[in-house]
Amino acid sequence: MSQQEVPVVAEQVRTSIKAIVSLVLGILALCTTFITGLPAIVLGVWSLIDINRRQGALGGTTFATIGVVLGGIGTVITPCLVAILLPAVASVREVARLQKAEVNLRQIGLATVNFEQASGTLPVAGEDEQGNRPLLSWRVHLLPHLGYDALYDQFHLDEPWDSLHNQSLIDLMPDCYQNPGYELAPGMTAMLAVTGPETAFPGGERGLPISALVGGTFQTILFVEVDADQAVVWTSPDDWQFDPDDPFRGLGGARPGGKFLAATADTAVFKYDVDLPEESIVPMFTRADDAVMPMPKF
Prior knowledge:
single chain, 298 residues, alpha/beta, 2 domains
């Protein structure tokens, strides 16, 4: 009678729960960095110790190892990469904001030239000698030359900008009056005209013709982007008052490094530095024929 062989059933190896959790936390650490990266490392090492102690009765070595590696990457390498890439991302965003602002200012400049060609003068901006100002901003009167005829027709031109009816149109500000990167309230703009007695916008009942800019269109700044705290309601006749004794007042906060955009009367847009010598900037803000050279571009 032959002896009956008893079949040997292999014991199923159980996977370490700690190893599985370590793997999951390690994967998450690629996004959450040390928040889940450190727990992934701790659980991974703990599970490897358990697995080694069980001598084959407990599995999950691969899961635990990957969890430790990913946890280390998330904790150390990912923050380093973020620290390296963040300035580059910020720089790319600033370039995009700058380009959009340049397009906006150039669009405003082109509309101003078209306005002058149609009416014979620049739009009215600023205060006259008696302190009188127009009812509505030049920004409103440019609307037909910016493709916003329907919006222009909604304004009551014989009423001030803050009349009950005209106030209802403030939130409809065209995109070209926006300053990318600024956190301004709806209807606020940092695109202002350069006003003052010797500028292209001295105030009065009628604007000046382009021919009055004896300093030349290339050397006469019409519009600037001011600091955020100098922003105004786009329909109001408020603008940037040029002060020859303090020519950079309210400028330089729009761009990193104390720079600002400005549009000249020939529709060109440049980025200028507030560290420029005052003697080179003052003539650019006036219409007089005393600017000997264009302001340096940056």
